[in-house]
Automatic annotation (TrEMBL):
Protein name: PF20097 family protein
Xref: InterPro entries: DUF6487
Species per Swiss-Prot/TrEMBL record: Neglectibacter timonensis
DUF6487 domain span: 3-69
Pfam families: DUF6487 (PF20097)
Length: 74
């Protein structure tokens, strides 16, 4: 996959997370729970993490992954 920002080839791999990952419209200071419809809880696991297959551009730092296809880690 080519990086849509710089056009260089992206490296595939896995974005690995710990318990909670959220993409929120504004920076939440305490809880990462969604506050409105624009907020997305990407992964929430009590004791494990979640892995996402994706691509990284080491040139400009972009990471692309599908947050709906998380893989539970045991
Ligand atoms: Zn790039």
């Amino acid at each position: 996959m080519k990086c849509f920002k710089c056009g260089k080839e992206m490296q595939n791999g896995f974005l690995q997370t710990t318990n909670i990952v959220a993409f929120n419209q504004t920076r939440h200071k305490i809880s990462l729970n969604p506050k409105n419809e624009a907020d997305v809880m990407i992964a929430r696991k009590a004791f494990t993490g979640t892995d996402f297959q994706g691509y990284i551009c080491k040139e400009c730092g972009l990471v692309v992954f599908n947050y709906k296809n998380g893989i539970s880690r045991f």
